């Protein structure tokens, strides 16, 4: 039976991955900061699906915790077949505010350095076994310019492809997930005003996860959900840069914290 390790596995996209994989009979290792929430989600999934759920309480902005999770990823005793690098948080404060430097540094630790460390650990272990799947949750924000969040997610997207190419022909696949606006508590927790956005931009979480897992099974380098976001990403990647800069300013203004 396969085992998947999911960082940020108790809420949002991470929890949706956990529930979908559990429904398919996949054993889980869930990583998150809140030990009580970890226990609650683990018990829910064990009861509903009869799977094994291991929990690791860890803060991926803490180097010691990050190393501890990496050792679990690379363990030979209980191999990880799928790594989902999902942990993250909204980051929409201005890059000019000196009071937010520590928040930006934490974002780099959680959404860049942790991907590098955990992805490397998984890549080494999976390459030795000749099989495995890695999913790195990036964002559609990676192609626009909305402060440090876009920069962080652009790094995640580039890193994911670099790792995939390094692991080419080893039996290990690496897929970057580039979601748009997904209906989770992510925006509310970040204090972002999103209720005014039109319905067409939103993606159902279950659709996002199932399309991603299908793309992973096909060995795709990137997973972009739904035709509308595929079209948007195509425009953002290949459209006029002046338009993307203009759009980025408009979007930043519309997403200001309450």
Question: How would you characterize this protein structure?
Answer:
The structure is a single chain. With 258 residues, this protein is α/β, with parallel strands linked by helices. It has a single domain (3-254), classed as NAD(P)-binding Rossmann-like Domain (Rossmann fold, 3-Layer(aba) Sandwich). It is built from 9 helices and 9 strands. It has helices at residues 12-23, 35-49, 63-73, 101-129, 147-166, 186-190, 205-217, 226-238, 241-254, and strands at residues 3-7, 27-32, 53-57, 82-85, 132-137, 172-177, 181-182, 202-203, 222-223. Strand 2 (27-32), helix 2 and strand 3 (53-57) form a beta-alpha-beta unit. Helix 1 packs parallel to helix 2, helix 3 packs parallel to helix 4 (101-129) and helix 4 (101-129) runs parallel beside helix 5. It is globular. The relative contact order is 0.13. Residues 2-184 form the Ketoreductase domain. It comes from Tessaracoccus antarcticus.
């Amino acid at each position: 039976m396969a085992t998947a390790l999911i960082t940020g596995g108790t809420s949002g996209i991470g929890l949706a991955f956990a529930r979908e994989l559990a429904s398919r009979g996949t054993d889980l290792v869930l990583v998150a900061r809140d030990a009580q929430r970890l226990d609650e989600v683990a018990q829910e999934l064990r009861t509903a699906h009869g799977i094994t759920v291991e929990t690791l309480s860890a803060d991926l902005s803490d180097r010691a915790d990050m190393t501890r999770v990496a050792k679990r990823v690379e363990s030979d005793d209980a191999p990880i077949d799928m790594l989902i690098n999902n942990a993250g948080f909204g980051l929409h404060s201005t890059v000019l505010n000196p009071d937010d430097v520590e928040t930006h540094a934490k974002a780099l630790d959680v959404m860049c350095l942790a991907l590098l460390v955990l992805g490397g650990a998984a890549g080494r272990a999976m390459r030795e076994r000749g099989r495995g799947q890695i999913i790195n949750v990036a964002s559609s924000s990676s192609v626009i310019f909305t402060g440090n969040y876009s920069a962080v997610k652009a790094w995640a997207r580039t890193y994911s492809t670099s790792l995939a190419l390094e692991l080419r022909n080893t039996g290990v696949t690496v897929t970057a997930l580039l979601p748009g606006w997904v209906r989770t508590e992510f925006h509310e927790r970040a204090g972002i005003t999103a209720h005014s956005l039109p319905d067409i931009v939103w993606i159902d979480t279950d659709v996002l996860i199932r399309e991603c897992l299908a793309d992973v099974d096909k060995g795709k380098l990137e997973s972009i959900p739904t035709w509308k976001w595929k079209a948007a990403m195509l425009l953002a990647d290949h459209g006029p840069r002046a338009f993307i800069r203009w759009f980025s300013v408009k979007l930043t203004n519309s997403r200001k914290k309450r």
